[in-house]
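My current task is to audit a protein record that another person submitted. Thanks in advance; the entry in question is below:
***
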Amino acid sequence: MKFPQRLAYYLLGLMIGLFAVFYFLDVKDTQFCYLPNCRVLKDIRNKPFHIDEDAKKHAEALSQEEIAIFLTHGDVDFSQSNVEHEGGKLYVIHRKDGKQQNMTF
């Protein structure tokens, strides 16, 4: 078997394998979070959280949907984050809203 023929079989098998892998991983809704920002946001999203009364008074416009957007598209500021706070860790998340104003959560 000549090289071009082997290359064609290899590429055909590779394409079939890639389609199968992408199909099965898409069905499971798998996310690959290798970067620190993605890993921290995913970890925070997976844990339950509640908003205390003091925070509700200061952030009246902050709804559950906006919090979900923060935890999906925000940027974690690691220079201010990862501080021990009441038995847990404190993370500072920055994001720009639709009006291009900086918001911090």
Summary: The helical segments are 3-27, 36-46, 53-58, 64-73. The first strand starts at residue 75 and ends at 76. Residues 1-30 form one domain. The radius of gyration is 22 Å.
